[in-house]
Amino acid sequence: MTNTNSIYRIKEWILNAIDDGTLQPGDPVPSTLFIAREVNAKTDDVYDAIDELITEQVLTQSFEAQATVKESQPFFYPLDKLLSIGKMIEKEGYQAGTIFMNLDQQPSTRFDRKALNLKEGEFVTLIERIRTANGRPVVYCLDKVATDYLTCAAFQAHDESILTAIKENADITIAYSETEIESVSYEPRVSEALEAAPNEALMLLKQIHYDADHRPILFSFNYFKSEVVKFKTVRETEPE
């Protein structure tokens, strides 16, 4: 009990320092010996308290570097509803922008045909871009849609919104999406485009968007920089 109480006091000391601004996001945590003296605790308990705050994502630590106060991600992306990335960025007061990497019409691959229920020989419109906030990269987006629903020219005429372009070009409204979420440690081309460090994880949302008739319309790969975007959803308990 004494050890638990000591770790609690150390954690409270660090949390109070963060709350009152003594420790700012990105600041290194004071030395173990300094904290031990301030709280009148054992250095081993300080190590344990810091480890717990790292697990709770209050602090962060890379390899053998000193623990620092974690910097909060500025963007929330909801998983329980369809929200454009541009709106996610603008909601937090940033200016959303786009860097186009590729816009092309290509023959659908076997992979595309399986996702979008296409026949061999059908084409897809490929849209590859980086979404930015105040000019800084936030999300890498790769989107594929059958050219019957959207061509390159039709997309360019609709202010960068794929869903709006599909609606106005093909009179199709996206009703829902199936989403797979995967942590990607490093993807050379995408990480470089996002200006992500080699040790910075990316969160990949692989989505197939459907209309109300359950037809697959849009196949998307969105790589989010984990240091600037976090995800939020509401989950309900399944009835027994």
UniProtKB/TrEMBL annotation:
InterPro entries for this protein: Bact_HTH_transcr_reg, Chorismate_lyase_/UTRA_dom_sf, UTRA, WH-like_DNA-bd_sf, WH_DNA-bd_sf
SMART domains with a match to the protein in the record: UTRA (SM00866)
Record GO biological process: negative regulation of DNA-templated transcription
Molecular function in Gene Ontology: DNA binding
Domain UbiC transcription regulator-associated: 91-230
Cross-referenced Gene3D superfamilies: Chorismate lyase-like, Winged helix-like DNA-binding domain superfamily/Winged helix DNA-binding domain
Stored SUPFAM superfamilies: Chorismate lyase-like (SSF64288), Winged helix' DNA-binding domain (SSF46785)
Pfam families assigned: UTRA (PF07702)
Protein name: Transcriptional regulator
